[in-house]
Description:
The chain has a 9-stranded mixed sheet with strand order 2-1-16-3-10-5-6-7-8, with no helix packed on it. Strands 11, 12, 13, 14 and 15 form a 5-stranded antiparallel sheet that branches. A two-stranded antiparallel sheet has the order 4-9. The chain is 7% helix and 46% strand. With 241 residues, the protein is mostly beta strands. The N terminus is likely disordered. The chain is globular and about 45 Å long. The protein has 2 domains: 98 residues, CATH 3.30.1330.80; 121 residues, CATH 3.30.1330.80.
Amino acid sequence: MSPRFRLATLTVVVASAIAMVLPAAAAPRTDDDLVQVGTFAYLTQPDFRGLAAIGSVLTDETLGLGTFDNLDGEFVMVGGRAYQVKTDGVPRPVDPDLRTPFLQAVRFQPERSGPVPPGTRCDQLTPIIDTLAGSTDRIVAVRVRGTFSDLEARSVSPVPPPFKPLAEVVASQTVFPRGSVRAVLVGFRQGTTALGVGQPGLHLHGLTASHNAGGHILSCAAGPVVQITIDTVPQVRLATP
């Protein structure tokens, strides 16, 4: 994609006890930095206006999630390929000129992995992630893949200004029950030291193995063979106008 976003860029150093926003020059970039546009706090103002063109932000990132200008669908990046999932539930390659008010992406470099016990639900994954990471703080990139016995995703329709609160927008979401399906789920677990940077807790988007369906993951249940892999984020490159 095109060169990195040129507007003012800050570095969020997510340490074990604190999260600080520093000038970009204050910390050297590492290969597994999290590249981010906007914050979850920005969305909850509410403000859904795009802050940057997606193609101007991403370079060699391989895993990510986010949304589009005016919440026009869900952004899902798997294996370096980026998709937009609108309310028909169909993933389409992302036009790099589309703008985003919120996006998180990382060059995923697996650190640790382990099996997910069959029947484990999405809301039960956080303790597994924390055990693999050895911590409940910081931001952890997550990939969960395998066969799910129950998977439910969603997307939302574009919201023109004046913007409604995010909770009201989500209340009118379009839900896609996928049932039993092979899929890959990607996202981030935001620790207590990263409050406001991303959505609190575990935030997952996903695609079916055939890439014919996807969206923001509402719920899931692990089938017989599911593997979870993590990559701890050392710092966040936060691009803001």
